[in-house]
Amino acid sequence: MELKGKVAFVTGGGRGIGRETCILLAKHGVKVAVFSRSKAEVEETANYIKDELGGESIYLTGDVRSQKDIKRAVQETQERLGSIDILINNAGTMLLKPFDETSVEEWDFVQDINVKGLFLCAREVVTQMKENREGVIINISSIWGTKGGPDRSAYITSKHAAIGFSKALGEELKPYNVRVNAVCPGPVDTKMMDDLAPNANKEGWLQPIDIANIIVDLCLPKSEAITATVIEAFGGGRPVGL
């Protein structure tokens, strides 16, 4: 229970990796703010933490692309749970489409969620983390943040950016004892992937809890030496399209 009493803000916390991360953090005694666009999903996750685990959790709705939404959600978290010690930037979207068929609107949509969202959330919590001289920020990238591939140029660009952002911010915040890392999952069996590729071969794919275990481990004091770097968790499955 080394994290007992800490406060975490988790984006995309209503399902998949985000939901499992919220639940696992709560099992470690963390007070969890669950944030997503879907009220039904975040409400269910927060209620599960409270009713089934006896933990402390609130749910918040909004869009990671909106500075107003993020500012409001972070402020409410601080008022109801306390200063945020852990930020998990998990919200993301994926586009499977050839480059020359990708519209400007689609490109911007992917970058706004997968990159701008990281910036906006981190921007709202960093000042207080610096003042407290303590904090953990984990940005979820992807196997596609480490390589190239077909029919996903917008997604790959955004996930490379997530790694660059994590390394840059991690170096900047080292003097304040605020750790920033990126986690790069391989293919994970989630609803997002079901929606994108319902007929995909999921042999060897990871489960959301596999990534949640890594995320929470990075929040623990035992991982204090790890910052401004990338943790690869590819598993043995083959990504869609390869």
Provide a descriptive summary of the structure in words:
This protein has helices at residues 16-27, 39-53, 67-80, 104-132, 153-173, 191-196, 208-219, and strands at 7-11, 31-36, 57-61, 86-89, 135-140, 178-185, 229-233. The protein is globular, with a radius of gyration of 17 Å. The chain has a single domain, classed as Rossmann fold, CATH 3.40.50.720. Helix 1 packs parallel to helix 2 (39-53), helix 3 (67-80) runs parallel beside helix 4 and helix 4 packs parallel to helix 5. Helix 2 links the parallel strand 2 (31-36) and strand 3. The chain contains seven helices and seven strands, in the order E-H-E-H-E-H-E-H-E-H-E-H-H-E. 45% of the residues lie in helices and 16% in strands. A seven-stranded parallel beta sheet has the order 3-2-1-4-5-6-7, sandwiched between helices. The longest helix is centred in the middle third of the chain and has 29 residues, at 104-132. By secondary structure, it is α/β, with parallel strands linked by helices. The protein starts with 6 loop residues before the first strand and ends in a 9-residue tail after the last strand. The model has no long low-confidence stretch (mean pLDDT 96).
Overall average residue pLDDT: 96
The low-confidence parts are none
Q: Outline, from the CA principal axes?
A: globular
The fold-level CATH name is: Rossmann fold
Strand order across the largest sheet: 3-2-1-4-5-6-7
Radius of gyration: 17 Å
Main β-sheet, in a few words? Answer: 7 strands, parallel
How far the N terminus sits from the C terminus, by CA atoms, comes to: 41 Å
- The CATH superfamily is identified as NAD(P)-binding Rossmann-like Domain
Query: By helix and strand content, what is the structural category?
Result: alpha/beta
Per DSSP E runs of 2 or more residues, the count of β-strands stands at 7
> In CATH terms, what is the architecture?
3-Layer(aba) Sandwich
Range of helix content: 40-55%
